[in-house]
Amino acid sequence: MKAIIIYYSRSGNTEKIALQAQKDMKCEIIKIVPEEAYGNYISSCLRVTKEKKAAAAPAFTNPIPDLTDYNMILLGYPIWAQDLPRFVSDFISQCDLTNKIVVPFAAYGMSGINCTMNHLQKLCVNAEIRYPFDSGVFKKGNYDIWIKQVLKECSET
Ligand SMILES: Cc1cc2nc3c(=O)[nH]c(=O)nc-3n(C[C@H](O)[C@H](O)[C@H](O)COP(=O)(O)O)c2cc1C
């Protein structure tokens, strides 16, 4: 099975997981880049609140990748306002995930990845979501156990 990592990270926590996973899985990696960077924590929170109210769709700079050759997509994002960042969900909604396995991972403060699962399910209707992983400020995820499961799945099929 061939895997690719697609992620966004503003302050480096999701990126740390993404880069370690890339090392362990020896796979390709794409970082989603918003057209206008979100800046520091406070300005990001203010902007995201404004964007939510206006139902704005901030743009990203990446082209939509051709995922034909990949069976597994590891999708990483920070939890923002109990959700995926809007430009991340817009990016994913434009990818063809038909028959893919999507492995979501997230960095968060308090909320955990579960608060994004309903939305993620809707973005991944033709895909299967497996092995969600998260790591928070007070509750670190067990990366080693997670990546072992993902590597096993990858090598078995
Ligand atoms: C705009 C914004 C909204 C956030 N909303 C949440 C939230 O709803 N729940 C939560 O647990 N953490 C929230 N956080 C905290 C981030 O998820 C957390 O700092 C995460 O580790 C950031 O990952 P990153 O370093 O990959 O950007 C928010 C952070 C920002 C900047």
Automatic annotation (TrEMBL):
InterPro entries: Flavodoxin/NO_synth (IPR008254), Flavoprotein-like_sf (IPR029039)
Pfam family, one: Flavodoxin_4
Sequence ranges assigned to domain Flavodoxin-like in this UniProt record: 2-128
Domain of life assignment: Bacteria
Protein name, UniProt field: Flavodoxin
Natural source organism: Brotonthovivens ammoniilytica
